[in-house]
Amino acid sequence: MNKEIEKIIVEYVAAYPKIKGTQTTWKTPIIGIARADHSKFDQLKSSVQETHLTPKELLSSGESVIAFFLPFQEEIALSNKDGLRPSRAWAVAYIETNTLIGELSQHLIAYLKGRGYEGETVSATHNFDEATLMSDWSHRHVAEITGIGKFGLNNMLITDSGCAGRVGSVVTSMCLESTAVDDRPTCLYHMNGTCGLCVDRCPQSAFEGGFNRFKCYELLLDNDAYYDDLGLVDVCGKCCVALPCTFGNPCKNK
Ligand code: B12
Ligand code: SF4
Ligand code: SF4
């Protein structure tokens, strides 16, 4: 059954650019599955915030959680390397990937419903409290539990295809087999205290003295105003590009 779920996600993402005429294209998604009653989901109430939902609070019949990472094609991340503003391609990829995550999640839920199961999801972003800048459903924390990546010093989920991409997740009442979890770090700083390049790339010095999400958001909103023809694009992403963890796991084979 896991193979079928994977096939649905991979085929949907591969066909999407042609069907929808998107500028953005994506590499093969990375997919992970965890049991909804995994004890780590309860811990998110302390590591994220008290109101963070467990899978069963999102879907009472929930048995499994499916998470996916959609890596951007490399030219999108490469285009965002220089300058203080995010590239236009990075901003467009943000909008198009948020839409893709929503549509892919609904496509998956429709498939599950067709098989007699339930499914529930949360939008890719803009589901956070403006006062705390935290969400009650953190896709990357959920994805980390499914084993598709680990957090980097840049806060990003770093997968075998790096961190330049976006994350989504779906809770379902279908019982699926959990994927293997590798507990080794995917960030050089967390592995052996080296690198730290992401911190130097931040134009806002948002990592100084612990991550300041408000400083980061200030720049994101300024960039949104800069690209006012594109709709809501609160982006930057300088801490995700031109780094050892942009396109892959730099700790692999070390
Ligand atoms: C709120 C939010 C923001 C806020 C706050 C960011 C933040 N760090 O939380 C603002 C507006 C500032 C923001 C900025 C960005 N965001 Co944002 N944001 C979200 C949102 C909606 C919720 C995140 C949340 O609740 N965080 C909760 C807090 C507690 O997490 P945290 O601060 O990162 O802290 C944890 C980790 O860093 C972790 N951690 C750190 N180091 C280590 C080390 C170890 C060993 C361990 C175990 C854990 C660990 O522990 C901390 C506590 O739990 C999600 C979408 C969603 N619903 O999931 C997208 C999301 C996190 N954003 C994303 C992105 C890409 C960005 C930007 C790059 C903007 C852009 N698109 O250009 C920047 C990056 C900022 C940064 N370096 O963190 C992506 C991340 C993709 C990825 N590969 O991980 C997400 C998942 C959206 C998506 N659907 O893909 N974002
Ligand atoms: S740039 Fe280096 S320190 Fe920063 S997240 Fe990537 S591997 Fe970790
Ligand atoms: S998104 Fe930009 S402002 Fe925010 S932490 Fe990363 S580099 Fe800094």
Could you characterize the architecture of this molecule?
With 254 residues, the chain is of the alpha+beta class. The protein has nine helices and eight strands.
Number of strands: 8
Strand content: 5-15%
Helical content (DSSP H or I, runs of 4+) = 25-40%
- What is the domain total for the residues? 1
Mean of residue pLDDT values: 97
Structural class: alpha+beta
Widest sheet: strand ordering:
1-2-8-3
Poorly predicted runs of 5 or more residues: none
CATH architecture: 3-Layer(aba) Sandwich
CATH class: Alpha Beta
Task: Indicate the overall shape.
Answer: globular
Looking at the structure, the CATH topology is NADH Oxidase
User: What is the helix tally?
Assistant: 9
Report the radius of gyration as a whole number of Å: 18 Å
The biggest sheet, with number of strands, parallel, antiparallel or mixed sense and barrel status, is: 4 strands, antiparallel
Distance between the termini: 33 Å
Order of helices and strands: HEHHEHHEEEHEEEHHH
Oligomer: single chain
Bound molecules: cobalamin, iron/sulfur cluster
